[in-house]
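Protein 1 of 2
SEQ + STRUCT:
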Amino acid sequence: MPELPEVETVRRSLVPIILDKPIESVDVYYERILQHITVREFRKQTIGRSILDLIRRGKYLIFQFENHLDLVAHLRMTGRLIYYSDAGIAMAKHTSAVFGFGSGGELRFEDVRKFGTLDLVPSGEYEQIKGLHSLGVEPLSEAFSVEHLQDLIENRSTKIKGLLLDQTKIAGLGNIYADESLFMAKIHPERPASSLGREEVKRLHRAIKEVLQDAILGQGTTLRDYRTGYGREGSFQNKLQIYGKKGEKCPRCGVDLEYKKVAGRTSHFCPGCQRE
């Protein structure tokens, strides 16, 4: 599933292309992508309208329309939002929806597994959407301070990896970047959250921000499906220190890397420098 760096990269790549350009056509090829609205009504509300802004909240993208409506997109497991400058380019067979612009370009929502969603809501009410309304703090915001992270883990016996993946605590952080952050901070994923000392909390806070910022600079991680808004692969997969590297040598201490299920997810770690 695309995580914060991937979704933010898609946002940044689409903003210069699609803002303030009226949508001239809308085609929906997979009706179940639409939430709580018919195809007919969806087309009526979006055709002829311009997108004024595109923002991100957690792993969600919110297209803000001029007619006081917000279009909330969630890529889920395999969704991709790609802008094609030439509408004549052959359409992928797993395309769920297409937005056509007057310039001749198209924004296509491609989704192999068809879990992605589009939800049209009144402006400013997107936080009422299930999953979005309960999101926690944005980890790259000023609100995500060392003190905030300390408060999140205090008196919590849950494993630190599980807490990092809890979207109601920290929005947008997923499996890849939780593993990378814990490795950078030298913290074992199975440590009880409340067992972290003050210096460990500081290291983890710094690691989360650094890993996410570096991943955005690398335009995200492409392991299989993810593409930027231009249709290109990310490059951060080439800089991963630990994720997907079971059996390889730890780049820090030389011990063989391992993985195991933690909080229901495969977790990669170094038993040498991430001790329980």
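Protein 2 of 2
SEQ + STRUCT:
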Amino acid sequence: MMKFICLCVTLFCALSSSAQFFKQNFVTLDQVNLVATYSMHYVEDSTNQAHIRNSDMLLLLGNNVSQFESKGLYMSDTIIRKLMTQEQVQQFFMNPQSPHPSATYQIFKNYPNGKLTFTQPIPGTNFKYEEPLDIFNWKLTQETSTICGYKAKQATCDFGGRSWVAWFAPELPYSDGPYKFNGLPGLIVKIADTRNQYVFELLSIGKPAKSLPVDFLDDDYMVTTKQGFFKAYDDFRADIVNREKAAGATNQMQQIAAKNMSERNNHIELLRK
């Protein structure tokens, strides 16, 4: 229970400090045509390969722009937009029954045109950086498979210090996929690194039950590069105990926070160039 409380406090600070849930200034970039739900299985702690975490992720596909984030973040964001005070938001995060995001980043592809935009709050600051879309040097193979009911073809690439094997479905005419992956002639229905430390697999895809926008938060971001973001992230991890202490956390909560952070040592992008 103490571990849950500590996690909630850290998460609340990360999200609320970004002003994401109080300014409510969103820009509609597109309308959602399809919602693709992926399972993400990942090894968060490289020293404990047997501990595999699971999370559902959403890819919202518009005509020109797509949005990728955890299902928990999307659900909590939807709920929190309706709350009026910081106290209500804090109560939401402290409630074990509330949906809690496993990841707090968002990725918008083809925004701006020809690029992707990555946003993620680190307590105190909401960061944003851009990258070109065409960063993947795919190599097509002759392998085929059936995944989630779709006939899929195989492609491979190196990205972020890992080698990846992807399966894409030409009958789904979206050159998109989970995380930052894109650029294949069909939606990526499964992709995994060769050590199976990160595995994304399509669970379902369909039209939304009601009209949904692809919304981008118009926030006062710290605009940086990918390298700048990861430096800030690493600095935060290294200083977690001092930050928790300054926030009034007990010694026990400080140590739990330090342990939790030390176990998050296996980022999907090992190389950050």
